[in-house]
Amino acid sequence: MSLCDWYVAAHLPEDDGRIEQKGFPSCSYFFQPQLSVRRAVDTPVLQNGIFLTQTAAPDRPARLKLYVPEFASSLSISVAGCSSEEGTEMGNCFLVLRLGSASLQQGPITMNCSGFSCSAALSNPPWDTWIRVVIESTRANRTVTFNVVSNYTVGCKPKSLGLKADDEIFKLHGNSSYSNSSSSSNSSLLADTGVFSNKSFSWISQLLGSACVWSIPVLYEEVDVLSLRFTPVGGANVSVTNTHPTLLTYPLHAHASGGTLNLQLTLNSTNMTLGNSSSVVACLSTWTPVLELNHSQSCRTDLFGGYGVAVNASVPKAVVRLPFPQSATWYLTLQLICNSSNCGNASVVSVTPEVFLSACVEDCGLYGECRLLRSYSYLYAGCVCKAGWSGWGCTDDSTAQSYSHQLLATLLLTLSNLAFLPAIVVAVKHGYITEASVYLFSMFFSTFYHACDQPGIAVMCIMEYNTLQYCDFLGSICSFWVTILCMARIRNAFKYTLFMLGTLLIAMSMQLDRTGLWNLLGPILCAILIMVIAWVRKGVHRRHCYPPSWRRWVFYLIPGVLCALIGLCLYTFAETEDNYYYTHSLWHILVASCVVLLLPPKKKNREKFGWSSGWNPELELETPGLWIHSL
């Protein structure tokens, strides 16, 4: 049976940094995994101490399974009594014994059996789970019959500290003043913050008697999505001695594997002296604890690796972070290790093991954003780094942008909007007060949207980012809309009706999808269509091209259209993450320039401040279906 959950992930190579307009066709990638499972039915079960006769052929190995109970300290599998149907080389096994699954983190334990018997052993086997045993024949065309037996030992059963069946909730976070006549309650003193002398330590040792591991119960609280906080029942501080390891258990369910498991171990050296050659060694492991800790032995078992840290007087704090931890029971073993026979003035020291699950590492820091992602039913979190930063917690600055670069990008993107000031002045001078108001709105919100949109620390947000983005997109599209309708020279009543109706429709479409391609092209194409119809009718009525002046075409219309086309091409096709700050700034300047060039001259029937002089039938020509001003 499997010891863990397995996941398949697919990702695309790092993109080239191009900023593509939404709506254009792009390459589509499909990932359709298929999983085939071959289940071995009626797998024989190895019972502890009971021999089982099995047969292994070259093409049909013997597959067995055995259950390892909790607190097992060692496990051995022995093969003996080998015989072959061929009768040759009687007593020689010629078998390969594999203990554990090939899909485990460290691979299976393999033993070649060439004699009469052989055995494979596991120290610190995984607790409360099934282990796979595979025995294969190494000789071609030879079937071997053998006897196999398993034996496990429980060398140490942890003794629980600080919690018993009739404890009340308010006592779980008590202090050393809480005592009881039972030894387990008295032993809860060990889990509290305090100063311990050699005399108090010997008294505690007498209470615990034959205990080989001191196990401290742990409470956990689900704070938020992918956020768990574990707390020892006696408080944050945990006492550690040099005679017995201290064990804390942290169950991690399957829905928590999408976050980051954090361990922060801090040595509390207040009012105690820890020898320079002494340290508190910790081992964080899964499935089974590592109960034998010292400076030479690594933090690992035969099947699984662990994560070891140490704190001492010179290094009082250590941190371990594990992104996407395995959904299993995690064990933290603590022990005071002394290089000499004397541990200084402290035989019991106090440490603070903070174990918690967070969505991201340090909330991705200053240059990152923690995002919750969902793939079908699996929820996980990851950091989205900005300004060139990278890493699990956006702490790798090898490709990071400098502050001067960030400041330059912010200034270019914001100050380039000042190019709309000439457009506003020209609009007011020509009497287009409504259009000037739209340009002012667009300039204001574009400036502060880009000041808030920067990835680094050169950022200023005067209101919520979503509001600034919405107003920037709305002002940009409305600027195109009112400018082209103004060029059409249609009657004021009809023009302002289209202004209002178009703005309402644009506002609705921005709410639905503000980055869509047709939200940009739709209003522009509709306005151009209205302008072309108006110009054609004027040209047919006057029997010559409209506008009639060639200077208007050469010095204003053609340059203005070229500015608009170049700006649209830059905006749509040329922007990348690296050149965004100056290509988009150039887009601002080109759009503002085309507004200055494309706005029509002042109408003769307008007063000084741009208000209409009234409905003068002599200055207007009514045509069926559309009202058009005459020049």
From TrEMBL:
Does Transmembrane helix count among this protein's keywords?
yes
InterPro entries (UniProt xref): EGF, NGX6/PGAP6/MYMK
Keywords per UniProt = Cell membrane, Membrane, Transmembrane, Transmembrane helix
This protein's GO CC annotations: plasma membrane
Tell me the ranges covered by the EGF-like domain, including all copies.
383-394
Q: TM spans, by residue?
A: 407-425, 493-510, 516-536, 556-574, 580-599
Give the matching Pfam families. DUF3522
The UniProt entry lists membrane topology as: Multi-pass membrane protein
Where found?
Cell membrane
Entry-linked PANTHER family: FIVE-SPAN TRANSMEMBRANE PROTEIN M83, POST-GPI ATTACHMENT TO PROTEINS FACTOR 6
Family named by the database record: Belongs to the TMEM8 family.
- Per its record, how is this protein called by name? Post-GPI attachment to proteins factor 6 isoform X2
